[in-house]
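User: Run a structure prediction on this.
Assistant: Running it now.
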Amino acid sequence: MEVWRFGPAWAINLAGSAFEKAAFGHIGGRPGPPDATLARAAIELCKALVAEDLAPTLHDISDGGLALALAEVCIEAGIGAEIEYAEWRQLFAEDPHRLIAAIRPEDGERVAALAAEAGIEAARIGTFGGSDITFVAGAVCSSVPVAKAADTYRQAIAGRMR
């Protein structure tokens, strides 16, 4: 399976993000504004992908960013992934109307066509497989085992429930 990203060009805006609060101790500003036309187009694209059985997994990245969305998918599926990105803020930006999906390689052309019809940018950014979640930016590579990510994720949720 491939990892695809859908929505406007890579966001690097950390304003109002959970990452900004955790890393810098404050929240300043707000994520990019919602766009009703783009939101409807994204919803229609998701409906088309599901109707044609092209995306067994879809996940919004506007709540926690790409890194968290990918980790949640990998934890739930019990499988790793490797994605490529250019700028670290792309992993944590929470601007709206962006999502990731698991796409079979043989369906890529159809998926790209549906995205183009909907007016939504689409790009293959990696693959699912293995036992680690890996982020690659040029020569820089960071990995975490899915099992470790799952433990950390579950402990964080339990800690918030106290």
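The chain has one domain: 2-161.
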